[in-house]
Amino acid sequence: MQVDLPVRRQSRLSLTPLIDVIFLLLLFFMLTSTFSRYSEISLAGGGSGEASAASRPDVILSVAEGELKLNGNLEPLASVADRLGELKDAGAERLLIIVSPHAVAQDFVSVMAEVNRSGMPATVARQQR
């Protein structure tokens, strides 16, 4: 006895679900990306030379991971520009910003924005590990 099996039809692979998934991923990444506005901060180029007592900084701002110290005292980021303005009015002319190797880049950029807002000229140094 011969049994005829039904001929199995080959189904075509549909690309519609693949395209749907790609669009969903695209939508996900577009919505989760940052929409913050990037801005430029001008930095003066460094030069070599011998330091003298006259070029000592009047104010030292230390930037560490999540921590700011202005002349050794903890200071919140929101008040840095105001404090620097007060120190500038009191006669401070030179600011040294010391950046810790463990500092986050965003902390440094935020500090530079506040320093630019205060109008005090600054020199940036990197702390050794």
From TrEMBL:
Any one cellular-component term (Gene Ontology): plasma membrane
Name of a matching Pfam family: ExbD
Membrane topology (UniProt): Single-pass membrane protein; Single-pass type II membrane protein
InterPro entries: ExbD
GO function terms (MF aspect): transmembrane transporter activity
Keyword line: Cell membrane, Membrane, Protein transport, Transmembrane, Transmembrane helix, Transport
Transmembrane portions of the chain: 12-31
Subcellular location: Cell membrane
Similarity comment: family membership: Belongs to the ExbD/TolR family.
Protein name: Biopolymer transport protein ExbD/TolR
Taxon lineage: Bacteria, Pseudomonadati, Pseudomonadota, Alphaproteobacteria, Hyphomicrobiales
One GO BP: protein transport
Native species: Hoeflea phototrophica (strain DSM 17068 / NCIMB 14078 / DFL-43)
